[in-house]
Amino acid sequence: MKEKYPVLKGAEPFYFEGNNIGILVSHGFTGTTQSMRPLGEAYAKAGYTVCGPRLKGHGTHYEDMEQTTYEDWIRSVESGYEWLKERCDTIFVTGLSMGGTLTLYMAETYPEIKGIVPINAAIDIPTMASATNLEDLPRYLDAIGSDIKNPDVKELAYEKTPVASIRQIVMLMEKVRADLHKITCPALIFVSEEDHVVPPSNSQHIYEKISSSEKELVSLKNSYHVATLDYDQQKIVDLSLRFFEMYSEK
């Protein structure tokens, strides 16, 4: 299905060709590649090949997103993975929020992935799950984007959230949550101590349920949900680069 809305400026997918180690970078629910571009650029500067796909229905208009399914979002990330596989021997995956959910999905589905870096990944958001069970919901709810501690930064995200899309992310979270035990690759899990979108307990649950022997849970003390654009951005960049370097050699 052709998307009828133009892609917003700043929401375009990004690709950087570098060495034979690839980093797949995924943005979150109702968000855009803008939230992950600083990480992508930092990884490219370090020499890596980087792909930041735009999830279908995102970065255009919320009516566009309303027509997509979680399978569409999986396919968007898988197409980025295919692009990297054509160029790289080793691939890592990272993502924010639902991008973190998709990161977990990729590790569950493609055991050859070398390592993952979920950032405030979503596997259980009770407010979303309960909302989908209510009768007579409006077609759209308030926006969830731009949960950022730094007042000078704004996330490029939709101003409304389609209820149909909430139902899709709830199904995706259920699917991923049930298969966490399938993950065996090294994992660096970032969690903001204060997050107004995804309960921080999600990351603790991920840490406990994945089967990886090498895993670390890193607390972010100075960022809200969109930590990749917040005060802890450099910490995420530095620790993830160290993670990639450490495990690409194993």
TrEMBL record:
The record marks I144 as: Important for substrate specificity. The active site is at S97, D195, H225. Residues 23-228 form the Serine aminopeptidase S33 domain. It holds the Pfam family Hydrolase_4. GO terms for molecular function: carboxylic ester hydrolase activity. Substrate binds at F29, M98. PANTHER family: PHOSPHOLIPASE-RELATED. This is Lipase.
